Amino acid sequence: MNLLALETSTHHLSVALLQGDACLMRSEMLAHGGSDRLLPWGKALLAEAELSLEQLDGIAFGAGPGGFTGLRLACGVAQGLAWGADLPVVGIATLEAVAFNAGAERVFACLDARMNEVYVAAYVREQAAVFRCEMAPMVTPPELVSLPAGEWHVAGDGVAAYPTLQQRFPDADKRIMPTAEAVARLAVPRFLRGEGQPAVTAAPLYVRDKVALTTAERLARGGVR
Predict the structure, then answer these.
(1) How far apart are CA 75 and CA 68, in angstroms?
(2) DSSP state of 89
(3) I want to staple 187 with a disulfide (CB 3.0 to 4.6 A). Which of 90, 155, 169, 197 is the partner?
(4) Of residues 183, 179, 176, 186, the one with CA closest to residue 14
């Protein structure tokens, strides 16, 4: 299966091209922007693999949760490419991509959501690229993070962002981030199950419904004016 995947939900932007088991990827850490990277990266990967857009079986994107601008960017580019080539799309939860990259069987994924909050979810691996969602993605203040019963491998930069989580989970793998390769590999079984959707139906998974806090809300959460 040939898939192009986009992941821009965090500052770690990446584009991957999956050909069977082989994967090509471009990535970069960017504090802001990135819209000028995705299409050139995608074009370069297709050229390197000697494939055209029309030879793809589908396009996958990191659906979220994550930064609002980044989620819209990946979804919009995926929609545009898929629409032009009449390809199906699949959105993959960002936290599930973290679970995939963590390499453990039971992963509690935790990403920094800014605004004194974290995105969290729990996944259990059932096959190499198939996870069961034990706890659906949600956003919460770090002091209210609660793990499902059982033993969990905690992963993601959300732990590094808040001292209270560093103290609770000193063995967490704080370096794990979502990547386009993880998105692509997680998308394969979904495309094979016929879960690809028309481009027009693609949508981000925001979880959070606010992009900013009022001054009073920031102060209540320990922030500054």
Answers:
(1) 11
(2) E
(3) 90
(4) 179
C-alpha span between 149 and 111 (Å, rounded): 20
pLDDT at 225: 34
Q: Kindly tell me the number of DSSP H helices and DSSP E strands found in the chain.
A: 7, 9
Q: Which tokens is 114 given?
A: 């800014």
Average pLDDT of span 90-98? 98
Is the Cβ–Cβ distance between 77 and 38 less than 8 Å? Answer: yes
- Domains and their CATH numbers in the chain: 2-216 (3.30.420.40)
Q: How confident is the model at residue 208 (pLDDT cuts 50, 70, 90)?
A: confident
**188 has a pLDDT exceeding 70:** yes
Mean pLDDT calculated for residue range 159-184: 98
H helices of the chain, in order, are 35-49, 68-85, 94-102, 158-161, 163-168, 180-192, 215-220
Residue 83: both structure tokens together? 């629409």
**The pair of three-digit structure tokens given for residue 174, joined into one six-digit string:** 């704080």
Q: How far apart are CA 9 and CA 72, in angstroms?
A: 9
Q: Look-up: residue for tokens 């589908």?
A: 58
Whose structure tokens read 């040939």? 2
CA 169, CA 58: separation in Å to the nearest integer? 38
* Residues ≥6 apart with Cβ < 8 Å to 102: 109, 153, 155, 173, 176
Evaluate if residue 212 carries a pLDDT over 70.
Answer: no
Average pLDDT, the chain: 93
Task: Tell me which residue has tokens 């009022």.
Answer: 214
